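Record 1 of the preview.
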Amino acid sequence: MPDYETFEHDVLVIGAGGAGLRAAIEASAAGVRVGLVCKSLLGKAHTVMAEGGIAAALANVDERDNWKVHFADTMRGGQYVNQWRMAELHAKEAPDRVRELEAWGAVFDRTKDGRILQRHFGGHKYPRLAHVGDRTGLEMIRTLQDYGVHQGIDVYMEHTILCLLKDGDRVIGAFGYERERGRFKIFRAKAVVLATGGIGRAYKITSNSWEYTGDGHALAYDAGTELTDMEFVQFHPTGMVWPPGVMGILVTEGVRGDGGILTNKRANVSCSMRSRKIIARRPPTTQKKAGVTAKVTKTRDVHPSC
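->
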């Protein structure tokens, strides 16, 4: 076997978006040696493209909001086929995660009395999205990156993982290469975390960055993992399709939250504050022939539960 450069870690995290960075920070806090592998430069993950905000029942704008309402909204948005336990944990823990980002340096938009501002969003009963203008994902990555680099995490930028290494039924590391020089490398680890993002680049038109090629799905499948719920691909309902130079650019959901009204070519108004899944399932004849347009009004006149 060729003598490849080898690195040893207790935990290897593949992917350096919001999930990967947070996993690496948590593992490092437990006192173990952590390696973080990313296909591009650190801080360039697709998380930076998230514009709208972070859903968390902080109740800063509407005191009626709480985790139970958030949980109910999440289950309803998923047509009740969600993994309810995951939805419950998300609803309960989201406020603490937002406060954690704030403690680590994230600069959220503020209410007049200095609390984190929250905006309306599709599928949410109350204003719930903590945000930083229209660049929430960028602020999230900046905060996690700045905090994480001081935790002793070894970062391997511009590396692509080709396969997971196994000893019997146990994963013991990963094999990949350095993109700039093409040199193969071995990463040995007691535990491997896959946080590689989605599969957006499987589609002709997508707002996803070039990294979103389903690497993690393939790595897990080749290693013998059973993949579940593969049909659950979320489509964002509003994006640019013309002219060709802007095709694939996202139109933030915050447009609808701030009063944008979706109409078809006949000026028929759709229910703009429904969840992404509902809006994205509008009849194809409406979307493909004329596209979906958003007219921003000065007042928010679309009821969030319509």
